[in-house]
Amino acid sequence: xxxxLIFAFFPCNSESDESCKKHLGRVLSIWEERSVYENDVLEQxxxxxxxxxxxxxxxxxxxxxxxxxxxxxxxxxDPPQTTxxxxxxxxxxxxxxxxxxxxxxxxxxxxxxxxxSLLDRxxxxxxxxxxxxxxDDACMLLADYNGRLAAEIDDRKQLTRMLSDFLRCQKExxxxxxxxxx
Length: 182
What we know:
182 residues; 72% helix; 8 helices; flat; mainly alpha; 2 domains
């Protein structure tokens, strides 16, 4: 089935609809997390979607290294456009941290999943298998939510950089105009 998917992803590469790419990229990351396809197949799908631009999911350690090595740019070539800032802010409105439905699902997990001391209640194989399935479902829910939160943190860091660059450029522009006015 992945051979058909590759050809389905190509039109998204040529179109300028970034939200479509973002959603398909999310699907690819889920397939990668859950090992739906092998890595080479996922790489082919990623190349079909993004073209030459390679997007790799970063681990928490890689994000921390980037964070530690990150220094504010002293003179970026192009400040972010206002429309880009607005779009980034609007995308954060639907961020994972504000997903009340997932919060409710996590809060309503059975106590048996949350508290190890309740394992004594398992009396037979059937109840053990049932608990195992509940734990697996909870792990999948939490892993997916953690992935979404990590992506949100990354988006927020990028937005912070964009806003600081925009603010710095606006201050420079203001200083230049004040100097011209004097």
